[in-house]
Amino acid sequence: MDCVGPIMPEPHFTPAARRHIHSLLRAIAPFAARLNRQFRADLLRRQFNSAQTRALLAITPAALCGTRTLPQALEQVEYHGARLARLNVPPGEAATALDRFSALLPPVLGGAHQPALEQLRLATTLALNDAYYRVREAESQTFFGIERAEIEARDLEDFLRRAMGVLTRSFRASAGRLLLECPPSARLARPLYIERGAGEAWPPWPVPNRCVSWWSYPLQSGGLILLGFPKPYPWLPRELALLQAIAGRCDEAMQRERARTRMRLLDAEARAAQEQERRRIGRDLHDEAGQSLMLLRLQLEMLQRDAPPALRTRLSEIRSVADAAITEVRRIVSALGPEVLERLGLEAAIRQLAVRFRKIHPAALRLRIGRLPRVAPKIQEALYRAAQELLQNAAKHSRAARVNLSLIPADKSIRLCVSDNGDGFRAETAENGPIAFGLSGLRERAVMLGGMVRIRSAPSKGTSVSLLLPWEPHR
Fold first, then answer.
1. How many CB atoms lie within 10 A of CB 198?
2. H/E element holding 326?
3. Across 151-242, where does the E strand assignment appear?
4. Residue 234: helix, strand or coil by DSSP?
5. Which among 13, 25, 188, 252 has the fewest CB atoms less than 10 Å away?
6. Considering only 62-66, 77-81, 289-293, 419-423, which range has the smallest mean pLDDT?
7. Helix (H, G, I), strand (E, B) or coil at 451
8. How far is CA 150 from CA 158, 164, 175, in A?
9. CA nearest 382: which of 450, 451, 470, 445?
10. Per 3-state DSSP, what percentage of the chain is helix, strand, and coil (rounded to 5)?
11. Cα–Cα distance list, 468 to 64, 439, 452 (Å)
12. What is the pTM of this model?
């Protein structure tokens, strides 16, 4: 966060101006110590703290007497002006303090060197303002960096890694670490400046030899932000405030991730309960309604065989209705609990879905299934339900003439892809529709199992949805 560098190079002064300013500083030099004592006493009366007082004393004409060139003098002003900015002293307040120092000079200068004093004062004011706004700009850039990291990060771990990179660069630290798991300690539960060889115990974690001092800032969600420096570097108030704000953003991100994790767990429990209820309903339909319909059909067949010729036609029609009801109950039972998945495996279950799709929908379905490895039951069920839902979406919403379904194994993963040449959609306009709702649920299930979903679609360009899952669900 240091903002150093000359803001008013020596060529900006005319040769005459340089001579007059050097003459002014030589005239002040014999009285510098007395002027500094008087100015220090005045600053303390005005309730500047010790750090602010030291920074203000370093930018007076008396302090600049020790520099050899004007650029060096202005570099000193800018450096301490940046410190004043991080000490929450605005340029106007610093300028008012310097006015009080100028009031001490007339007895020393006897009315001489006034133009040179005014020119030096103007250059000092410009340097202070420039340093102040550079510090504020650096703070803004830090926040922009954190904002960008949050937008571009793939997950919480990636965001925290990027955030630590932003902090390390912003504070010009030589090392930065984020400890998410550290031993509980009352000492580490507060912001802590740690310096090698100075009273405070050196951190209880491995530190690079190049680090002489560390900042330790606790996260409310657990963990520590650590920044190491190659020299003693106690933080200043604005730096601590900035660190606090960034730690707050990290805390918020961690809390959101924990909330999402809890929601995913609850969603998993709800889906498991839903699946169990589906299977129960399927078993009840199969055992009760299905068996009753089969008995009804058998009774109708027997009645038809023994009935007079005049009734046989009507009984045949009734038996056809019973046959259709049995077929529909079997379809519902299969949809509620894919017994074929449990009995014959994933490939047979997907092929059965394709057969049903071809019977009901006019779209041409092309099926491609690779040689499948042994896949965990949870993954098989997720792939089957995804294929079921995506085929249903294609049939109901796409108005496609062609649909492709592929199930191909990859390295330690398996990919399901359903694509069509239908209407397609825009994500921003479909986000509240049934398609988006189903795809959102599909994405959540994929994340919960350690996989991912990719969706490509555009109006009149069709839709392609790919689901990539590991062979075994993540714990």
1. 11
2. helix 309-336
3. 175-179, 192-195, 213-218, 224-229
4. coil
5. 252
6. 289-293
7. coil
8. 9, 12, 21
9. 445
10. 60, 10, 25
11. 67, 14, 5
12. 0.62
